[in-house]
Each structure stands twice: as C-alpha cells, then as structure tokens.
C-alpha cells in the first residue's frame, strides 16, 4: 500500500467514525428492506423462480439499487 493510499484509508475511517458518532447522537435509525426476498418468494409461488423473468427482475432491482431515486426518507418521531 502506498503512502497516499494509507493516508486515504486512515482519513476515510476517521470520517466514518465521526459520521457514526453524529448519527448516534441524533438517535438516527436506518432500516433497509431489500426486495430480493419478496421478489424470490413471489416468483417462486408463480413457478417462475428459474426463469428469464426472474433474472430480468433481479437485474432491474440491482440497477435500481445503484441510483438514489428509489430512496425515500420517513421521519420517525420519538
């Protein structure tokens, strides 16, 4: 690992720790629901778990997870 990469890794870790501290202080909770399980279950019930449709659906989910347009924030009040 070069000197520049080592510096970056240390800096990245300190930023992640600071973010975690801020989120914990704000009592921030994050729940992520992945659609893979429900998709697999639904297509299995339809008998399509080993089909082209299943592969296309997984590809669409994977592409969708790469963009932020699927995200939504739900405010939870204590």
Automatic annotation (TrEMBL):
GO terms for biological process: regulation of transcription by RNA polymerase II. It comes from the Eukaryota. GO terms for molecular function: cyclin-dependent protein serine/threonine kinase regulator activity. This is Cyclin. It comes from Triticum turgidum subsp. durum (Durum wheat).
């Amino acid at each position: 690992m070069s000197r520049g990469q080592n510096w970056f890794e240390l800096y990245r870790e300190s930023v992640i720790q600071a973010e975690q501290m801020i989120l914990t202080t704000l009592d921030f909770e994050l729940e992520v629901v992945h659609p893979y399980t429900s998709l697999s279950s639904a297509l299995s019930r339809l008998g399509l778990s080993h089909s082209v449709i299943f592969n296309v659906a997984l590809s669409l989910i994977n592409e969708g997870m790469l963009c932020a347009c699927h995200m939504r924030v739900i405010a939870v009040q204590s």
